[in-house]
């Protein structure tokens, strides 16, 4: 009944992606243009052009946009291959936040919005942002949303402050979450707006210094200062932002899991090679039981994570929303892969915390994964509420 065989076509594409990332993108990991605030736009464009030449750019896009439209299960296989380098998804245009944004826009944008804001992102010509989190408002609890959109006759005027907005600097496709204030003309409540990043009223206050360095242009603090948008800038329907965010979140959580599984597998490969070749106390490190156990624990965790991701993807492919399933998998995978990366650092000894290998970068980048798209505790809070409401 359950078949774990990977279809030949998917396996072939996986091998192509893996070879591309290994041969063409891994060398960029030591490029000085990989800065504290992520790859520069110049470096991103260069990598994207390589993926375009290889015929692999935005492979996950729907067929109507020239992509290969893989199922969720197929994506699990392909995104893992892309994640072999933390820069692989950036090159292939399947990194966050663009990948989740493309998914959302493909579902709810109208034809005009698709042409203006989605197609250029799919083609790798411009980047996108999803601006929800606020220093004193929306975070784990989006109901605390403070950014306000006031309807003044034909336009909305938006004011508020956001932070941790990935890629804000230089992005052109902006999805902004704001609360439409009660008005006599129509509905109110949390709403998504879609606009160009060059619109007056969007001000990048600064880019935050963070532990991770693989998201293009890092994470920005953004102020909306009387940002005036026409009613046509509403994405979907007024008052439906939280529902749309959920639509984006279930698959986006899983693609994070897939990419980080690829990165953790790379860390494990590097740790294994080190354990086989470095000696201590008269034999290779790998022959010490303490090291062998760490390698085995990693292998067990990697395979558990892979199977769990495939299962949640299968629920999405069968038409379910997968909210509960993706929540369980994201909580488990983010915790387990972080432990894998930590054990890899340990096996490498002092070299593990240096830039002599990419393991230190994988470790520090992966730390944030336990926070975004729902911190572990928030997923556990939701899971326990669901289980308590509907005991088996
Ligand atoms: C690398 C990175 C990139 C990001 N990119 C974006 C982006 O592009 N756009 C965007 O809008 N946001 C982005 N975020 C923000 C991210 O979505 C938030 O950090 C996340 O939702 C948590 O919100 P918060 O940081 O406000 O933490 P808070 O909501 O203040 O929570 C802090 C901690 O409190 C605990 N907690 C909260 N609620 C509960 C609960 N119900 N039960 C138990 N414990 C709880 C958890 O331990 C949690 O970690 C990004 C974050 C990171 C780290």
UniProtKB/TrEMBL annotation:
<keyword id="KW-0274">FAD</keyword>
<dbReference type="InterPro" id="IPR009100">
    <property type="entry name" value="AcylCoA_DH/oxidase_NM_dom_sf"/>
</dbReference>
<feature type="domain" description="Acyl-CoA dehydrogenase/oxidase N-terminal">
    <location>
        <begin position="9"/>
        <end position="124"/>
    </location>
</feature>
<dbReference type="InterPro" id="IPR050741">
    <property type="entry name" value="Acyl-CoA_dehydrogenase"/>
</dbReference>
<dbReference type="Pfam" id="PF02770">
    <property type="entry name" value="Acyl-CoA_dh_M"/>
</dbReference>
<dbReference type="GO" id="GO:0033539">
    <property type="term" value="P:fatty acid beta-oxidation using acyl-CoA dehydrogenase"/>
</dbReference>
<dbReference type="InterPro" id="IPR006091">
    <property type="entry name" value="Acyl-CoA_Oxase/DH_mid-dom"/>
</dbReference>
<feature type="domain" description="Acyl-CoA dehydrogenase/oxidase C-terminal">
    <location>
        <begin position="242"/>
        <end position="387"/>
    </location>
</feature>
<dbReference type="InterPro" id="IPR046373">
    <property type="entry name" value="Acyl-CoA_Oxase/DH_mid-dom_sf"/>
</dbReference>
<dbReference type="GO" id="GO:0005737">
    <property type="term" value="C:cytoplasm"/>
</dbReference>
<keyword id="KW-0285">Flavoprotein</keyword>
<dbReference type="GO" id="GO:0003995">
    <property type="term" value="F:acyl-CoA dehydrogenase activity"/>
</dbReference>
<dbReference type="GO" id="GO:0050660">
    <property type="term" value="F:flavin adenine dinucleotide binding"/>
</dbReference>
<keyword id="KW-0560">Oxidoreductase</keyword>
<dbReference type="Pfam" id="PF02771">
    <property type="entry name" value="Acyl-CoA_dh_N"/>
</dbReference>
<dbReference type="InterPro" id="IPR037069">
    <property type="entry name" value="AcylCoA_DH/ox_N_sf"/>
</dbReference>
<comment type="similarity">
    <text>Belongs to the acyl-CoA dehydrogenase family.</text>
</comment>
<dbReference type="Pfam" id="PF00441">
    <property type="entry name" value="Acyl-CoA_dh_1"/>
</dbReference>
<dbReference type="InterPro" id="IPR009075">
    <property type="entry name" value="AcylCo_DH/oxidase_C"/>
</dbReference>
<dbReference type="InterPro" id="IPR013786">
    <property type="entry name" value="AcylCoA_DH/ox_N"/>
</dbReference>
<feature type="domain" description="Acyl-CoA oxidase/dehydrogenase middle">
    <location>
        <begin position="130"/>
        <end position="216"/>
    </location>
</feature>
<protein>
    <submittedName>
        <fullName>Putative acyl-CoA dehydrogenase</fullName>
    </submittedName>
</protein>
<dbReference type="InterPro" id="IPR036250">
    <property type="entry name" value="AcylCo_DH-like_C"/>
</dbReference>
């Amino acid at each position: 009944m359950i078949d774990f065989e990977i279809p030949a076509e998917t396996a072939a594409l996986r091998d192509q992606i893996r070879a591309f990332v290994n041969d063409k993108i891994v060398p960029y990991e030591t490029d000085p243009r990989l800065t504290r605030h992520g790859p520069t736009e110049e470096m991103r464009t260069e990598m994207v052009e390589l993926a375009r030449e290889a015929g692999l750019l935005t492979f996950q896009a729907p067929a109507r946009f020239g992509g290969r439209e893989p199922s969720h299960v197929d994506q699990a296989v392909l995104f893992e291959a892309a994640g072999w380098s933390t820069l692989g998804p950036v090159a292939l245009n399947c990194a966050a936040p663009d990948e989740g944004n493309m998914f959302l826009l493909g579902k709810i944008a109208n034809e005009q919005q698709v042409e203006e804001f989605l197609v250029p992102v799919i083609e790798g010509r411009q980047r996108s942002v999803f601006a929800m989190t606020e220093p004193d408002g929306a975070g784990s609890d989006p109901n605390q949303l403070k950014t306000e959109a006031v309807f003044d006759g034909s336009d909305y005027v938006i004011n508020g402050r956001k932070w941790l907005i990935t890629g804000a600097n230089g992005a052109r496709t902006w999805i902004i979450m704001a609360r439409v204030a009660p008005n006599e003309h129509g509905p109110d409540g949390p709403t998504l707006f879609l606009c160009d990043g060059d619109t007056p009223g969007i001000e990048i206050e600064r880019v935050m210094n963070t532990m991770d360095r693989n998201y293009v242009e890092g994470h920005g603090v953004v102020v909306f200062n009387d940002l005036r948008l026409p009613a046509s800038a509403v994405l979907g329907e007024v008052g439906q932002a939280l529902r749309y965010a959920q639509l984006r979140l279930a698959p986006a959580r899983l693609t994070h899991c897939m990419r980080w599984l690829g990165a953790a597998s790379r860390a494990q490969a590097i740790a294994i090679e080190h354990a086989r070749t470095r000696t201590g106390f008269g034999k290779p490190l790998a022959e010490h039981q303490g090291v062998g156990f760490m390698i085995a624990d990693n292998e067990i965790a990697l395979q558990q994570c892979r199977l769990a991701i495939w299962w949640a993807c299968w629920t999405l492919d069968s038409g379910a929303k997968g909210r509960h399933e993706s929540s369980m998998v994201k909580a488990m995978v983010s915790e387990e892969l972080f432990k894998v990366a930590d054990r890899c650092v340990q096996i490498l000894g002092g070299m593990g915390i240096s830039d002599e290998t990419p393991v230190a970068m994988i470790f520090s980048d992966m730390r944030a994964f336990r926070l975004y798209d729902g911190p572990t505790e928030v997923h556990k809070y939701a899971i326990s509420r669901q289980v308590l409401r509907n005991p088996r």
